[in-house]
Specification:
The complex is a heterodimer of chains A (117) and B (137).
Chain A: H1 3-9, E1 13-14, E2 27-30, H2 34-40, E3 45-49, H3 55-63, E4 67-70, H4 78-86, E5 91-93, H5 98-107
Parallel strand pairs in A: 2-3, 3-4, 4-5
Antiparallel strand pairs in A: 1-5
Helix pairs in contact in A: 3-4
Chain B: E1 2-8, H1 17-29, H2 33-53, E2 56-63, E3 67-74, H3 82-85, H4 95-99, H5 107-114, E4 117-123, E5 127-135
Antiparallel strand pairs in B: 1-2, 2-3, 3-5, 4-5
Helix pairs in contact in B: 1-2, 2-5
Classes of the chains: A alpha/beta (117), B alpha+beta (137).
Chain lengths: 117, 137
């Protein structure tokens, strides 16, 4: 599934400024521990977290994630947004909790398994 | 080719600069993406350790035809018990660092897992040096 379909279906609000969101999402991961994400998340995945500081953009960019969703109406710091823009990493926010947004992603078929193409 | 970066102590705003720069450099050279990812993760974890625990440090990347060696050194407090420090979940990070999602005790194990060769030397009161080798296989 493409990122823009996920964004539309889950009504995600983008805080970065990317127009081109047609990359294929390779799966998803949820955690607020950055080292855990670095050890487990794979390139092309969506990462769900409640951390909103700029190191999330650094971690997401190093792994090569498709996007970050900051859940539970958590605040995304301005320097995280800037770093996301600098590193071609879209960041979205949702009022849904991490639990609910991961459930919704799963229903769409975005799971922890790498998408087989 | 050898590049060197200073890691500022406690400055979370500049955290990850060395790993991001090394990643960009390796991408320009044309190193395979999965190897770059491993190098970037290992370097980032090391940078964060310097920043959180040692008041800063130094990252050196030696980029060779067969692989890249990353050496991360600091003059921090040193690690009294390396075996313990290598255990997943063991950490001495302060609470404010944990609140940011760091300090979960996964950094050193992650560095060992993502590198092809991992060596850690540490002396209490003098500092620590980690050497990681990554092959372009």
């Amino acid at each position: 599934m493409k990122l823009n379909e996920v964004v539309t279906k889950l009504k995600l609000q983008q805080v970065t400024s990317f127009a081109k969101l047609d990359m294929v999402v390779q799966g998803g991961y949820v955690s607020d521990l950055l080292s855990n994400v670095m050890g487990q998340a794979k390139p092309g995945m969506i990462w769900v977290t409640m951390q909103g500081h700029h190191n999330i953009a650094a971690v997401g960019s190093l792994i090569g994630l498709a996007a970050i969703i900051v859940a539970g109406d958590a605040k995304v710091e301005q320097d995280a947004i800037e770093k996301g823009n600098d590193n071609d990493l879209p960041i979205f926010v949702t009022a849904l909790s991490s639990y609910d947004i991961v459930g919704a992603l799963n229903k769409l078929g975005v799971t922890n398994e790498q998408e087989k193409k | 080719m050898k590049v060197e970066y200073q890691v500022p102590g406690g400055d979370f705003d500049r955290a990850g600069e060395a790993s991001a720069n090394i990643k960009k450099l390796l991408q320009r050279i044309g190193i395979p993406a999965d190897v770059i990812r491993r190098i970037a993760i290992g370097t980032y974890e090391g940078e964060m350790n310097c920043l959180i625990h040692a008041g800063g440090g130094r990252v050196v990347a030696e980029i060779e035809p067969e692989g890249t060696v990353i050496i991360i050194s600091d003059q921090g407090p040193g690690i009294p018990d390396i075996q313990k420090a290598m255990q997943e979940g063991w950490s001495t990070a302060p609470d404010y660092v944990r609140a940011m999602g760091f300090g979960a005790g996964m950094g050193l194990p992650n560095m060992m897992k993502c590198s092809d060769d991992f060596n850690i030397q540490s002396k209490v009161g003098e500092g620590s040096t980690i050497t990681m080798k990554f092959l372009y296989k």
